[in-house]
Amino acid sequence: MEDIIKIKGITKTYRNKRALDSLSLNIKKGGVIGILGPNGSGKTTLIKILTGLLRPNKGEVLIDGKTPGTYTKSIVSYLPDRNFLYEWMNIEDAIGFFKDFYEDFDEDKAINLLEFMGLNKGMKIKELSKGMHEKLNLSLVLSRNAKVYILDEPIAGVDPVARDQILDAIVKNYNEESTMIITTHLVRDMENLFDDVAFLRGGTIELIGNAETLREEKGMQIDDLYKEIFG
Ligand SMILES: Nc1ncnc2c1ncn2[C@@H]1O[C@H](COP(=O)(O)OP(=O)(O)OP(=O)(O)O)[C@@H](O)[C@H]1O
């Protein structure tokens, strides 16, 4: 299977802190990969490099054959780990904002997803709870017809019911032609979603593999393997 993302030897240093250390990773087209690692392991830094928000000090990243920039932003739908909508907006404005920004945005899909999440158009952004924010942001991001979806900690800080709804929305809206990259340290809740997993420690990949194969080889769930590696 063709690789949609090729990461070769990237290093990223903030002042004197090395967040990524000669990290290499190829991600094949189609499928869901979990990037797993504890706080500070470099997950967000890696995602910011993939989305073109940061540049590595060394190494190379290719997404669909191009370095992160205008083209890659047009094919990558990104859920940041924080809110990206304006406080003055309501949900309808947020839909309009995505429609204006992204040619691949499917408004009908967004409306269906928002209904599934129990959100309505008139709700004001500044009045949403953390879980509602997460549901809104995810609904918008999943409503783009993108080649690559990058979800940074999609269920962090939300209650178990909202978590299940978010996971359901991801599963139901995932299209097998596209590639999904999800970072998390909430492995138990998310492991059934992953085709492949990569364990990140100290800015490098400690272990990578097919989730099912790893479960068989190690005789344990990915969550237990995570605890064994990072515990
Ligand atoms: N802007 C910054 N300036 C200085 N150091 C930073 C900056 N951003 C991240 N770091 C450091 O780089 C390392 C990797 O951080 P990063 O945010 O990528 O980790 P993470 O795996 O996403 O963590 P978390 O799960 O807590 O979000 C950490 O040691 C962090 O302190």
List the helices and strands and how they pair.
Layout: E1 3-14, E2 17-28, E3 31-36, H1 43-50, E4 58-63, H2 70-75, E5 76-79, H3 91-101, H4 107-116, H5 130-142, E6 148-152, H6 160-173, E7 179-184, H7 187-190, E8 196-201, E9 204-210, H8 211-218, H9 222-230
Parallel strand pairs: 3-7, 3-8, 5-6, 6-7
Antiparallel strand pairs: 1-2, 1-4, 8-9
Helix pairs in contact: 4-5, 5-6
The structure holds adenosine-5'-triphosphate.
Provide a descriptive summary of the structure in words:
Keywords: ATP-binding, Hydrolase, Nucleotide-binding, Transport. The protein is α/β, with parallel strands linked by helices. The protein has a single domain (3-230), classed as Rossmann fold (3-Layer(aba) Sandwich), CATH 3.40.50. Helices cover 36% and strands 28% of the residues. The protein has nine helices and nine strands. It has helices spanning 43-50, 70-75, 91-101, 107-116, 130-142, 160-173, 187-190, 211-218, 222-230; strands at 3-14, 17-28, 31-36, 58-63, 76-79, 148-152, 179-184, 196-201, 204-210. It has a six-stranded mixed beta sheet with strand order 5-6-7-3-8-9, sandwiched between helices. The chain has a three-stranded antiparallel beta sheet with strand order 2-1-4, covered by helices on one side. The longest helix has 14 residues, at 160-173. The model has no long low-confidence stretch (mean pLDDT 94). Bound molecules: adenosine-5'-triphosphate. Adenosine-5'-triphosphate binds next to strand 2 and helix 1. Adenosine-5'-triphosphate (ATP) binds at residues 14-15, 17, 19, 37, 39-45, 185.
